[in-house]
Amino acid sequence: MGCSESIQREVFVTRSHRKQTILNWDLESARLHKIVNAIGTDENAVIQILATFKCSERQRIILAYKKTYGKDLISVLESELSLGYQEAATALLYRPEVYDAKSLHQAIEDHENDTLIEIICSRKTLAIEMIREAYQEEFTCSLENDLLSIQDQDLRELLIKFCTINTEGVRSKADRTAAQERAIRLHSYGDLVELLCEPLGRNQLKATFEELETLYMKPIDVYIDNQYKGKSLDFRRALKAYVACTISPPAFFCKELNKALEKNSRSKKVLRIVITRSETDLYYIIREYLSCYSIQLTKAIQKKCLPHYTHPLKIILAIRGQYQESAVRM
Question: Are 203 and 257 members of one domain?
Fold first, then answer.
């Protein structure tokens, strides 16, 4: 039996078992404790256990482990697992906002604008608020204050603006007349950044983008390049990312994954995207990837990722990439 077939069978058995039993967090923490204390830690088993549960459930395993063994599970796994497995396990165990906050902090220190753009331009208002709170708690400094260190002034101002505005709108059907009016203003003299800062809601923004492309007779990416040609390249990349994520998050992350896979050194980015989308739209990202690039995402990872990231990623994709009722289709 091949590795992927074995993982798929494990997923089926585990999920069937979960449906028939009441979850016992002490038992799950005991399973992890036994694995990490055995001679030769079964790293695949650790990832399989963690990936089986939702993030909120993994937090209960952390508490149970601390209560029973008096140790922090994240610290234990950091000391027992090899690099790729270690990063996958800790990323799964952190609350999403904490993981994002840590990723942003590292990106600021390393001057990785690509990571800053990916995270800030793809998260919803509530998620950004939680990230800001987690950042303050983790690093005793505000996210906005640390973003001031970005050397690109255009990008710096845009990302800080995206971090501090409330763009949540009423979830309702798009008003086509209003969308046409906004598109006309944008085509004539309007500012797309100001539009994105309005609490219009995703459906209304999508309708406005569609009307703008009809008027402009070119893709909105071309509009951004022409309208903001005096701005920096990263500013335009951030604006395009925000728009793309508004239109279709799965399509946006599909392209981000492909760009990362084309650079073998970006395996960490692949891991971050897979884990951060694992409870929302990973199922649809996997489908989108196959549709766009005619290759399964798992096979692309097998070919392109660094070896120590390949196995944990394949396990997470096999388990968290299954269709779930909570999967968000955008």
Answer: no
Please choose, from the candidates 133, 131, 138, 202, the residue with its C-alpha nearest in 3D space to the C-alpha of residue 167.
Answer: 202
Q: Are residues 189 and 141 in the same domain?
A: no
In a domain, 5, yes or no: no
CB atoms within 10 A of CB 218: 12
Q: Among positive and negative, which fits the CA dihedral 100, 260, 317, 50?
A: negative
Domain that holds residue 302: 249-324
- In this predicted model, what pLDDT tens digit does every residue of 232-274 receive, in sequence order? 999 999 999 999 999 999 999 999 999 999 986 689 999 999 9
Give the H/E segment covering residue 80.
Answer: helix 73-80
Evaluate whether 61 touches 29 at the Cβ level (below 8 Å): yes
- For residues 123 and 113, what is the distance between their CA atoms, to the nearest angstrom? 16
Locus of tokens 């990973």: 282
Asked whether residue 47 falls in the same domain as residue 67, the answer is yes
> Count of domains in the chain?
4
Residue 186 within any structural domain of the chain: yes
pLDDT tens column, 300-313? 999 999 888 999 99
Residue 277 DSSP one-character state: T
Q: Single out the residue in 59, 76, 93 at which a domain terminates.
A: 93
- Identify which of 196, 288, 197 has the alpha carbon closest to the alpha carbon of residue 249: 288
Write a three-state SS string for 170-234: CCCCCCHHHHHHHHHHHHHCCCHHHHHCCCCCHHHHHHHHHHHHHHHCCCHHHHHHHHCCCCCHH
Q: What is the pTM of this model?
A: 0.90
Question: Would you say residue 19 has pLDDT above 50?
Answer: no
